[in-house]
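pls design
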């Protein structure tokens, strides 16, 4: 079985998005300064602050996704609308710096999740399904290699394979017991696994905002790049899932691996 030309072109586009995220380069080009300069200015407690903010954000996103995202609740069907919203939250974060992270990041993450769900719906997903809601959260783990990665788990399908077991456990738990016990091991493991990758991207964002003279305007622009990154990851991810519904999954994986981009 072969892919139709339009589907093959979509697969190529998806791989271009998923395997070339380049967030660090885009932010550095915007600022005209390497992000490493921002890391040099961050306090030693950064790691703990980012970890806490990231996990809190994902916990809120999980709760939001399960309880409120459905096929009847439709966010504005526009990437630009969501970018304008995080532009505003980024302005606040840029004004108040690192202390604002624990307030700004959960709001930004929730807005991004709505945008991700919007993209998922446009690729034929049913947002009311638990599987789709978890797939939306899965996007936060894409395009941001974990520090524990050994180089073999940085590609799109490798990341999905690495997440498969923890997602399966969390999905089973939520199906049987819901979110009544957020501290359940299956949910804690899911949040920790997603946070280990999402936190790397958050650290880059925070480092960029730590560069002198960034301020509100710079924070807003960085947030716009931040959401654009995850919109790209979402588009690629849900194109792949759409093609997997049309064709054999192994065929999609094989064609993806064979593509030269």
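designed seq:
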């Amino acid at each position: 079985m072969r892919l139709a030309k339009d589907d093959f072109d979509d697969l190529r586009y998806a791989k271009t998005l998923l395997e070339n995220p380049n967030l660090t380069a885009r932010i550095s080009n915007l600022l005209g300064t390497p992000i490493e300069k921002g890391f040099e200015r961050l306090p030693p407690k950064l790691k703990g602050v980012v970890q806490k903010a990231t996990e809190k954000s994902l916990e809120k996103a999980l709760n939001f996704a399960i309880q409120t995202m459905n096929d009847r609740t439709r966010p504005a069907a526009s990437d630009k609308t969501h970018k304008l919203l995080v532009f505003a939250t980024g302005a606040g974060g840029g004004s108040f710096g690192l202390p604002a992270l624990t307030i700004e990041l959960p709001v930004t993450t929730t807005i991004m999740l709505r945008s991700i769900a919007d993209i998922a719906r446009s690729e034929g997903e049913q947002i009311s399904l638990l599987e789709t809601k978890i797939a939306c959260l899965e996007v936060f783990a894409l395009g941001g290699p974990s520090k524990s990665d050994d180089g073999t788990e940085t590609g799109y399908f490798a990341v999905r394979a690495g997440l498969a077991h923890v997602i399966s456990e969390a999905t089973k738990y939520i199906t049987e017991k819901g979110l009544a016990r957020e501290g359940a091991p299956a949910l804690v493991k899911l949040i920790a696994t997603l946070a280990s990758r999402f936190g790397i991207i958050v650290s880059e964002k925070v480092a960029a905002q730590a560069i002198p003279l960034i301020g509100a305007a710079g924070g807003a622009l960085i947030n716009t790049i931040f959401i654009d990154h995850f919109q790209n990851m979402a588009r690629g991810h849900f194109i792949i899932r759409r093609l997997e519904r049309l064709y054999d999954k192994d065929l999609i994986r094989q064609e993806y691996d064979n593509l030269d981009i």
